[in-house]
Inverse folding.
């Protein structure tokens, strides 16, 4: 009799006296158990809270309670973290995290507004509906008394090939042919910043003498080492300018930078003859300091203290 048979089905339990409800399936609550409501109709001082907030599946209990509290506050009430921390026992870290939860789910917006005095303040907006539902509203229904506004006319499209004045050459990009690179230019042996600066100034000044020698920034950067190589060979800036601007073609230049690059390379002068540096001046002769004679106490110059010449002669 001490052994129990686990395969035997359990016997039916006796019904408790006064329980008029039939037994339900195991694991389910009876109608008499669970939450009960004792509701009284509110006429003043109440706030309507949606079940989407009160029963939110992803918000924490602190965030749900804080969202309910913010919706119950009047307009203009303080809702910053410092004020909420003084109102509730939770710390500033937990309240800030709850505010971020509400902001992520669309129940809160924080906007930075500049006041008329110039001061920037943070305005907190509590939303009784998630902001995502209002951020993407559906199409507005068409009514008979409010017809749809006419569509705005499309702006005129530019003509793909606008007319050009007679004799004007089309731009290089419109022809489709790639632009040829500029010829190489000589380079100086020493990289001296002052030399390159003087070369760039000389190239930028060419347009004052000949308007057709107007160079762009990339062309000037490409030609600057070539002019610096000329200046390094003891050629004056005036001589470089004359060599670059002499005998220009009368029909004009199509690519001034290529023309100047060719002249800088083809007419490069030979290097100047080496000049030995000037000999260093001989070191200055130092005079011995003044000493007082140990015999006559007169002053004389000597590298070491002792006797003067007269006292040495008498000695």
């Amino acid at each position: 009799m001490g052994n129990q048979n686990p395969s035997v089905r359990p016997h039916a339990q006796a019904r408790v006296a006064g329980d008029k409800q039939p037994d339900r399936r195991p694991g389910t609550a009876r109608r008499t158990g669970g939450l009960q409501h004792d509701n009284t109709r509110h006429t003043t001082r109440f706030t309507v809270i949606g079940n989407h907030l009160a029963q939110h599946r992803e918000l924490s209990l602190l965030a749900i309670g804080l969202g309910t509290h913010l919706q119950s506050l009047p307009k203009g009430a303080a809702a910053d973290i410092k004020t909420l921390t003084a109102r509730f026992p939770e710390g500033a870290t937990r309240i800030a995290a709850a505010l971020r939860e509400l902001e992520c789910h669309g129940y809160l917006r924080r906007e930075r507004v500049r006041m008329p005095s110039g001061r920037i303040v943070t305005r907190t907006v509590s939303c009784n509906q998630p902001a995502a539902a209002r951020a993407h509203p559906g199409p507005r229904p068409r009514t008979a008394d409010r017809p749809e506004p006419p569509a705005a006319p499309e702006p005129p499209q530019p003509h793909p090939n606008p007319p050009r004045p007679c004799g004007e050459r089309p731009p290089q990009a419109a022809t489709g042919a790639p632009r040829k690179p500029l010829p190489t230019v000589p380079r100086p042996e020493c990289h001296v910043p002052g030399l390159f600066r003087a070369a760039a100034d000389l190239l930028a000044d060419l347009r004052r003498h000949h308007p057709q020698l107007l160079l762009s920034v990339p062309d000037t950067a490409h030609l600057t080492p070539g002019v610096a190589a000329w200046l390094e060979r003891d050629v004056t800036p005036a001589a470089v300018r004359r060599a670059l601007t002499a005998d220009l073609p009368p029909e004009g230049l199509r690519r001034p930078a290529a023309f100047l690059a060719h002249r800088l390379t083809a007419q490069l002068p030979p290097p100047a003859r080496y000049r030995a540096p000037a000999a260093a001046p001989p070191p200055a002769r130092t005079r011995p300091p003044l000493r007082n004679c140990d015999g006559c106490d007169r002053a004389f110059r000597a590298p070491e203290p002792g006797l003067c010449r007269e006292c040495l002669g008498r000695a």
Notes: Residues 1 and 158 are 103 Å apart (CA to CA).
